[in-house]
Design goal:
The protein has 139 residues and is mostly helical. It contains six helices and three strands. Strands 1-3-2 form a three-stranded antiparallel sheet. Helix 3 crosses helix 4. The radius of gyration is 31 Å and the shape is elongated. The protein starts with a helix and ends in a 17-residue tail after the last helix.
Length: 139
Amino acid sequence: MHALDVLGDPVRRRIIELLADGELSAGDIGSVIQREFGISQPAVSQHLRVLRDAGFATVRAEGTRRLYAVDPRPLEAADAWFDPFRRFWQPRLDALGTELARGRRARRLDGEKADEETDAAASPLPEEPPADPEDPEDG
């Protein structure tokens, strides 16, 4: 089964997303998937078996629990399949990255300018003392 066939199912993609954060028990996975997709526990078990059989997930026993984790190798194969197509979106992503960097730089420079203005306003030049009407030099 091709990696994209395995990942073509939204339930299996969601399981992989859950496992991307770390190892989870079959029960924890089942609780989330049953709540989000409204499928039975046996159906969740079937999806876990497909992921295991296709090499996307590993399982280990810990007492009576079964702990699942992602195996990244099939994901790397799926990623490699996209290589010829990256030319369609990569330039746009690069341009987006450039614009985001420009925006961050502009905000940083604006912040530095605002800090300088705040500093200047917080420490005004000392005022001259009021003129003494009886002093001829203040005159």
